[in-house]
Write a structure and sequence with these properties.
This protein has one domain: Rossmann fold. It has about 280 residues and is α/β, with parallel strands linked by helices. Helix 7 links the parallel strand 7 and strand 8. It has an eight-stranded mixed β-sheet with strand order 1-8-7-2-3-5-4-6, with helices on both faces. The protein is built from nine helices and eight strands. Helix content is about 30%, strand content about 15%. The two termini are about 35 Å apart. About 5% of the residues have low confidence. The protein is globular, with a radius of gyration of 19 Å. The structure holds S-adenosylmethionine. S-adenosylmethionine (SAM) binds next to helix 1.
């Protein structure tokens, strides 16, 4: 058995990455702290700008050797530090996309002295031109009305109509609000729909996805559900307990997984540190 495969280590990613052999990872899919003052039970989202960017550069340099030559990297960011971090990554990789995740935030309240931020900025980077990318796995089916409108004989058997259209770089997917069935107790949990799209497109079946900042374990869960392997790290023991509960029940309805996760969370809650003020309304 490979000791690091299908494991999330409850430890600092920078220390733990030494466990992962170089050139063993198909996809790095990560959602690091944004430095917006979020409370993850640690100080990772409350650093000075200089420290945050220096730390980001350190983990990027520790992670990239782990990627295979045809591997890819997706990174969730916000507008605040995406410019600086994209420049770091563009010095080391080729940027393929800036994906905008429209979190479908309802039009209530928001900023009064600027425009309300309702999106995440996601970077998609590759190491080499022959990177793995399975477009057919992520095509979006045409709706019934479009198919009907194209029902004339010249369209019969048209591949594009049957297989669906290519996803664009604007992804409109609801954030996981408090009542959402998938939601567990993590402040910036990402929707499976988004993470699964990235895994299907950029990790071959049976391949390995690495997420150094697992949070509630969405990346690991997506990999497991889709027949890929995973590896990763999470600093907060309470989140490690949540992700273990999610991984133990990958197929059960998310609401049930949430209840099971609650018991594990209560057990591990002692490990959490008090909350700090975050920048309201930014990033989920
Ligand atoms: C933005 S959240 C990830 C959320 C995740 N994508 C999800 O869907 O739940 C970032 C996570 O990184 C963790 N973290 C921060 N610094 C870390 C470090 N040095 N090593 C490992 N995990 C760390 C935080 O505790 C937090 O849970």
């Amino acid at each position: 058995m490979t000791p690091w495969l299908d494991q999330v280590f409850c430890e600092d990613a920078l220390a733990g990455l030494a466990r992962i052999p170089d050139g063993s990872i198909d996809l790095v899919l990560t959602d690091p702290p944004y430095n917006l003052g979020k409370d993850y039970g640690n100080a990772s989202d409350r650093q000075s700008v200089e420290d945050y960017l220096a730390w980001t550069e350190r983990w990027i340099d520790a992670v990239l050797p782990k990627l295979k030559d045809n591997g890819s990297l997706y990174i969730f960011l916000t507008w605040r530090y995406a410019p600086e971090i994209f420049v770091m990554l563009k010095r080391r990789m080729t940027m393929m996309n800036e994906i905008i995740w429209d979190r479908r935030v309802p039009s209530m309240g928001g900023s009064t002295r600027s425009f309300s931020s309702v999106h995440d900025t996601i970077g998609f980077f590759v190491k080499r031109k022959d990177y793995y990318f399975d477009l057919d796995a992520v095509r979006i089916p045409y709706d019934a009305a479009t198919k009907k409108a194209r029902s004339r004989s010249i369209f019969v058997g048209a591949k594009w109509l049957e297989v669906g259209y290519n996803p664009k770089d604007l992804w409109s997917v609801s954030r996981l609000h408090r009542e959402h069935a998938e939601r567990v107790d993590h402040p910036t949990q990402k929707p499976l729909e988004i993470i699964e799209r990235m895994v299907k497109a950029s990790c071959p079946p049976g391949g390995v996805v690495l997420d150094p900042f697992m949070g509630s374990g969405t990346t690991a869960l997506a990999a497991k559900r889709l027949g890929r392997h995973y590896a990763g790290f999470e600093l907060n023991p309470a989140y490690c307990a949540i992700l273990e509960a999610r991984l133990a029940a990958p197929e059960v309805p998310p609401t049930l997984a949430k209840k099971r996760g609650a018991a594990a969370r209560r057990k591990a809650a002692a490990a959490a540190v008090p909350a700090a003020a975050a920048i309201p309304g930014e990033a989920t």
